[in-house]
Design brief:
Pfam families: IspD. This protein is α+β, with helices and mostly antiparallel strands. The protein has a domain of 99 residues: Spore Coat Polysaccharide Biosynthesis Protein SpsA, Chain A, CATH 3.90.550.10. Helices cover 38% and strands 22% of the residues. It has six helices and six strands. The strands form two sheets. A four-stranded mixed sheet has the order 1-5-2-6. Strands 3-4 form a two-stranded antiparallel ribbon. The radius of gyration is 17 Å and the shape is globular. The termini are far apart. Bound molecules: the ligand C[C@](O)(CO)[C@H](O)COP(=O)(O)O.
């Protein structure tokens, strides 16, 4: 919410204003992905970026597999995620601390509010650097880009 408060303080926010949020740990985002988010935000109050899952997603509860959803319905969420600012604020303000802690992305806030969430095609290269192996991969990609 820090970014939204900053926008209010510095510029004010109108009904139609959107916020395109990106993880700093995804350095290879493309212009195309950002533009798709903005384009879809004209039709949706929220946009998520995702790529189809290539691994099967396995849900685990209490150390046991509880569900193996059909893979063709499964996507991996990325950023940017884009929201209409007033709609996002309205839902976020109503959420409990526990609900907020359980969030792993911003698009979910809008789903909880009952908004349809548009989907922008992500890219494998828009990877999230989380683990040491990701950093090795990212360095290799960055080096390759430098060499081109
Ligand atoms: C929003 C996100 O990038 C979608 O993949 C991801 O969930 C952020 O996760 P984080 O590692 O908790 O920042």
């Amino acid at each position: 919410m820090g970014a939204i408060n900053y926008i209010h303080d510095q510029f004010g926010a109108n009904e139609d204003d959107i916020l395109v949020m990106h993880d700093a740990v995804r350095p290879f985002v493309t212009r195309h992905i950002i533009m798709e988010n903005i384009r879809l935000a004209e039709s949706y109050k929220a946009v998520d970026t995702a790529i189809g899952a290539t691994d099967t997603i396995v849900k685990v509860e209490n150390d046991e597999v509880s569900e193996i959803p059909v893979r063709s319905f499964m996507y991996q969420g990325q950023t940017p995620q884009t929201v209409n600012i007033p709609a996002f604020e309205a839902q976020y303000e109503h959420m409990t601390d526990e609900e907020r802690r359980a969030l792993s992305d911003s698009a979910k806030v809008m789903l909880l509010a009952g908004h349809k969430v548009g989907i922008a095609d992500g890219d494998e290269s828009n990877m999230k650097i989380t683990r040491p192996y990701d950093l090795r991969l990212a360095n290799a990609i960055a080096k390759e880009d430098d060499d081109v």
